[in-house]
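Quick one: structure for this chain?
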Amino acid sequence: MKIQTQCPACSTRYAVKNNLLGKKLKCKCGKVFTLTQPVAESAEQLGSVDVPQDFWYKQFDGIEDEVQSPAIATKFEARDDEPKANFEATLSMDPVSGVKIYGVLCALIGILFIGVWLLLGFFVFGVNALSFILLPILVTTGIAVFYPSRALLVNHRLIKINNEGITVQCHNKLPWPCWGRHIPIDAIEYAQIQCRTVTNSPLLGNAEYSHTTYGSKGRTYDHYFVYDLICKLKSNMFETRVASVTDRAVSKSMRLHLKRLLRENESES
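Got it. Here's what it folds into:
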């Protein structure tokens, strides 16, 4: 059978077995007392016990709170002194945009030019077609190889990242299949810089060397780093490559301003 008792110091009540009568008990507050008789059940028989004012504070001293407070999702608020997104750089022609289109155009023009040239040589000039074909081959090769290098030197583009969004403006002095675009900030779901490697081409400019691969018949292929500005539009389920750069320092600066741009947009929404 259990009986009720309480500590004379802090009035903490305990239910203990009756065979402990006459034994000494130790309260959790540290007080040692002798169990003499059960505590009276009625309110009239209960005496008031004076508890020190700072008793409960002492009970919790040194106790570590192991309950983890839930994480509170707070909305980002940009500080007034925090730098704003304000990236602007004039760069050379995009080393990726229009390359495949230009290659296909050169192939089609080359085939057409060589065919017409052969017809003229055989039916009009009456010369050997095989010897007459050398000139169009040289011309087509020059257009396919040397023209991109020249376009790389004279063409340029302007890339802007500010509170209005992302803008790429192409200024082509020589014709090239590359177009600019503007993406307003409200249309961007996320934007990032991705690094990849591509094989060497005349358009890579000052790209950083990455590695060399070896193909059949002892051929080697040099690879270089390219940094792509990728945007995911809210109206499109696919990612869009907006521009590519070959300068690592420029790509780092673009990445920094993209983060600022998206933080500003989040704080305003």
